[in-house]
Amino acid sequence: GDIGVCPNCAILPLRHGDTFITDGNRVAEAITYAADMGAVGIVLATGALSNSESTERAVAYAWDMDMLVAGVAGDENSFHHNFPAVLERAIYSHSVSHNTGDDDNAVYSYFNTWNCNNFGARLTIVAASGACATGSAAVTGGVIGLLHSAGRDAGLELSAGEVYQLITMTATDINLSEAEQAESKAYPSHEGWDAFYGYGRIDAVGAVDAVTAGAIPPVVDITAPRWFETAAATVVAIDGLITAERADGYDWSLEIGLGNDPLEWDEIATGSGDAPFEGTLAELDLTSLPPVTIEE
Asked: How far apart are the C-alpha atoms of 27 and 262, rounded to whole Å?
């Protein structure tokens, strides 16, 4: 082993099954217990066979108790709904490493996806690890611990939402050119969020530096529609929650992108405020969207 990301963090081992694959209700029990014990994060290298109401409520409860769920995308080099990591308010991650399997060879890129990792529209971030998606959750859990430690050193108690925002906003964007992708044999990437790398590679130093500098971002949470929810109506209300406890006010912009990995985003609403907001941010007329084209 090695020193790890947060060597002074206390660890609470919890068993919810015998293997990576387990029952969602048992995962829910582990999440709830960890939150009640005062944990600030829970690492779940787990693929649950079920997703009951208790699992969804446990993840929501963890968020309310300021415990962030660090889950994994899974290891099938594909995309599927890996529960409970795919749920709202959980971090959905996979790992990246150098572009050669031989440690003695020259390294061209450290932004290569392990071929075992899953990907897709739900991906949050990636983390440097010598293992598949499991390693990314361990790294993320360590960074969660570091952020809370840095916050307490500064006299701050960080919420789960603030830690989530710190991790995503300080991540290193992965944006390799076509020539760089060809040389490193990396998966496709582009500027900003993308389906193979999310918001980018987690940056422990950048996130901790933001805490020590007092640069704690507002918390933004889209509460409706839910992930992968189908819409029967032609007009969909986009609801959200915005809080900025450490700022005098905030400005917000709501954008939409089409498809699994959008290259363009369109602004559909803006606003500002100086008090917490919870409600409808915009209404989206689905009939105004361009028709979907499927290439043969």
From this structure: 33
